[in-house]
## 1
Amino acid sequence: MAVAVLVTAGIVRALGQPVGFPPVPLLSAVYLLPVNLVCLVLLRRVLHREGRSVRDLLGFDRSRLGRDTSWGLLWIAVLYVPFALTVLGVMAVLYGADVFNAFETIFVPDVVPTWGFATSLVLGLVAVVTFAPINAPTEELVYRGYAQSGMQAGLGPWLAISISALGFGLQHVFFAATIDAMVVYAAAFFVWGFGSGIIYWRQGRLMPLVIAHFLVNLLTSLPAVLVPFFL
């Protein structure tokens, strides 16, 4: 992720556009796509050597799709509450009594490229088409399905869940719009990852979490298509 962010920022700057760090969230769809694809290829190779497959790890079963979707909707509600409370808590630590005014600036990029309508629309479409269907299963497969379950035998469930959640939280700092937002994202997504890890450990199925992750990603990426019309 870090390498992909730096390469993307370098390309944008080489094209004569202003770019900050972190880059604008809309660019995350650009640098996240190759990261997800590389992770899936590497995971497939590792699982193949172990005599397993991505489908096996995913646990996809057409006959259970309705049930998995229902569980996924429940897990969104369960995970969102501690996630939102963590955002508010970290914001309160950072800004004190000015916490609610800070919401107007902390999630807004300091530097915004000045590309036109067509480029913004293409980036928005790329975000919608690739973010939810590729990122959701990739992150769940890597962090929960492989890393957490792989560490659990040697480290125990709680340490395995914590380490996996830490990686999950750190990865999401690259989606933040400002430096302060990186701190908020790291803490909030650690909490989300920790909750997801507990769910996976107790339920033993990855598909409900993939569905929950997919729906959240879809809802957060759809506005990207509307951005060009407001610029």
Note: Residues 58 and 206 are 6 Å apart (CA to CA).
## 2
Amino acid sequence: MKLVQFWRPNLGYRVGLVRGENVIDITMPEAGLKSTNDFIEHAAVGDFTLQEFVEHQLSAAPRAVYAWRELDVPRDPFVPHLALPIIPPEVWGAGNTYLRDGASASDDDHTRPEIFFKATAARCVGPNTPIGVRRDSDFTAPEPELALVLGHRGDIVAYTIANDVTARDIRNVSALFQPQAKIFRGACALGPSLVTPDEIPDPYKVEVRCRVERSGETIFEEMVNTARLARRLEELVDYLVRDNPIPGGSVLCTGTGIFVPQTEALENGDIVEIEILPIGVLRNPVTRWGGSV
């Protein structure tokens, strides 16, 4: 099952069920179901999976239907468009989770994984909305990642795509600068959809593709398979929630195996595309905040 959130003029944000090339509006304000967060919370209360709960709520009543291509457009308050697929109360990241070239799993095996705080909802953007480059960074790069949407018990309720935008030059100066390198306006993109675990039966056989376009030309393109993950997803979740309760709907980014070189550092006007099937393509323009330093 694939879910999205989208903006509908005069009605606000809506929840959509993706069927083929169409999006069916399944928002039910009268039942307290106005966001994907609401669906996740109500499913947990009833001890349903997200897929089971959505199917349980659907009826034969007529519903508004939109073409995907009509929603996958730049953000405009007067036009229906895709939005963040979830409003994450917290976004966390995991680092050094992929095997390095020429390394074995034992080479990359440390007892404790690297887990760090990434963003709040205010620092996240959805599809077709600008990601940011800090005004004091000369080497900011996208980090394409499979992301986990978690329930309040730490269970994986859905998957989405994350772009863990990182100011690498700031991080490389000192580990103490990691928060500044990771947390800023537009530092995390999520979307375009949420898919339930039945859509990705083996999360260790998933291709993650990244493209960076500049002035209509592809300047960077690379793919990695999650088969190269050196950490199990359950292990990452276990360390995240250990003595650290998280709100339902929080997101855990599982790390990247794609590294854009400094020669292709993000510039104002670039377009970043990250593709993971069946989640879709997360596309974002790039904006440098505040101009040059």
Note: DSSP finds six helices and 19 strands in the chain.
## 3
Amino acid sequence: MTIADPRFAVLLNPNARRVSSSMLNRISDLVDPDHLYVSDDPNKAEDLAKRILDRGYRTVFTGGGDGTVTRFINLMPGEAPAASSGAPRIGILRLGTGNAMAEIVSSGDPLTDLRTYVSNPSSDSYELPLCEAEGVRFAFAGLGLDGYILNDFETLRRKLGRTVFKPMLQNVSGYLAATFGITVPRMVGRWVRRQKVMVRATNVGDTAYAIATDKDGGRVERTVRRGEVLYEGPINAAMFGTCPFYGYRLKALPYAGVDPSRFHLRLCNVPSSRLILQMRQLWKGTLRHPGFVDFNVDKVHLELSEPMPYQLAGEAMGYRDQLTVGLSGNSVDLVRFI
């Protein structure tokens, strides 16, 4: 069964991990060719997305990872809630490597989700607020440890991508190899040499809330007014976003979504050894440690004592020694299947 509905389109990134020729053929069986868009050239992907928006589709499914979704979001009308902006709803086909945003709304199987929508177009959606930094909107990002892991993973892919290790580098095993083989030894070396990155996090928005974690979850420990310092001290990571996941169901930001008018800022100074020993709790978002300092904020300015790698929606963005992150005036409606 195919659908020839001008209100519905699919945008595929053929470089995504699971967008094989077989997957493309199966999607083509479900979607009319007039409404299926595939870009083999990253330089033309923006033009393709703009064409989709110009055609006025009510719903657009993106097939790729979080980077594919985020690039499309940033071409949509900004500075308005999803419901009033005239922007399309976004469906996420879980076809990339991390798929953090898909964890919120996808059943887990991209073909099942697409078949479900084709047979009975769903009106069920999840409104996801967004963060914004340097003019780019996103659902999650970070400085430090997660950026190092991403850079080290990309280094492994460049070195081993044409060897027998290629399959390992297309799933979570690749990230774990980068983490334990490169990133953690580097961080341990810095700890031995007592090299610490210091951060000053200042609240530059409305009242922020410091979150204390206890056995019942999170609770507001104190309020922080505009202009006050949220935290000043050593970190190995600063993570922030409105999406609790970092892909593969790693719940890096467990308080994201608790307050729709704020995002979760997590400053981490937990030793790498503790993160490794308690990996299970870390993955589930239940790890408790005084080295986690958590806030719900709507705008924060971060000043670092030295540049740290910056990742945005799972994509390397270079290094930053300062960054201002705020809640965007824009949100997106995601088609929900769970």
Note: The chain has a mean pLDDT of 85.
## 4
Amino acid sequence: MDKQQLTRLYQYFDIAHQVTQGALARLKDEELDYQPTPEMLSTRALLHHMYGVEKILAESVRAGGYKAAIQCAADAELATLTSIAATKNFGLNCHQILVDALAETAESELTTIIELPPGFFVASAPVWEFFAFAYHEHWHHRGQLTIYMRLLGKPVLDIYAYER
């Protein structure tokens, strides 16, 4: 994937991200602790993961590969998500870090192979895939968030509700 294709993908990603932010506005602070079952993530942990991965992947690109300190810093941020407002701001910040990392990445760097965080299905990938992974991870977990919201009895935004 070249820089122009990634940029177009991220224009769409920005719109999808805005819809996710709109969905978060429908939640209450106390619903951040909701877990459908004990083995599943709480809403807070789900949103932390969903947005934190964007930041971890962006910082891995900037660092030339995954570093454990990136994960430690991201994990520590979970405790700061004490309200919907804080969670929305966390999401906005993480997404902006990702968008900025893409803007800073030169076309020639997109094929550079770097190490991925633990838990991915491969140990390394070209830089362009880090940006694709972040996009797919957001969509995957937004589907999970939609299920949580339905279980909470919340009206759910149409996933394609792009008009603002």
Note: The chain has a mean pLDDT of 91.
